[in-house]
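note to self: dont lose this again. the chain is below, predicted strucutre after it. 247 aa total, dont forget to put it in the shared folder this time
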Amino acid sequence: MAETHPTLNWEASATTTHPQVSSTLPSEVTACLNNARFLHLATCDSLYPHVSLMNYTYLPSTPFSPHPIIIMTTNPSSKKALNLINNPRVSLLVHDWVSHRPPTTTANDAQRSGSPPRQATRSSLASLLLHMNTSALSSISTTINGMARLIELGSAEEAWYKERHLQNNTFGDQAREERGLFGALEESQGDGGRGCFIEGEEVRVVVVRVKEGRIADWKGGVKDWALVEEGEQHNTNAGHERLVNGV
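---
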């Protein structure tokens, strides 16, 4: 039976709402992190935010940290890696919505047909998702704010994180069958880019310590949350001093 979530309260979303302060993550956040395949990572330089779609691994704690962390990997010369060197603050978006966009009933304008085109062949998986009982699905997303750290190259910590990240992003026959429903990938892409993006010698491991965030539902309800140490008091104005991420 699908897990049901309490109704979220409608509050002004431009400011911090009355946060749920705890030493553990809210159950909705944990569910999203355990169930989602990808997340969106937002980094920022001095001008514009930069958003990337990322494989990730969530761990509630590690031998190197008692705090919830999220592991990702990146090319050291990527835009996000360069942003993280100067600004380690990041925002992540995770959701466990299962959806397929049906064709629109009419064209939006003379230059664009319905989206997706009606003549497009619908896969069996897409049809299943379209007709699935939506009451059995969650409609929660969560934004997560945290501090990112590039792990030292060649360290035991880096090796440990890479191993866990590789284990979490190695998929079996079911994943290959699902790819076939949407159109087969080239054989060289069958590992999901694992060899390039996780196992490569030059790949940098990024670890985000989870700090706080916001849960939102499809009706517009929001709920803020924050992680604190046992006995620590949450300060919503903390963390505005300039920080530089050591590499």
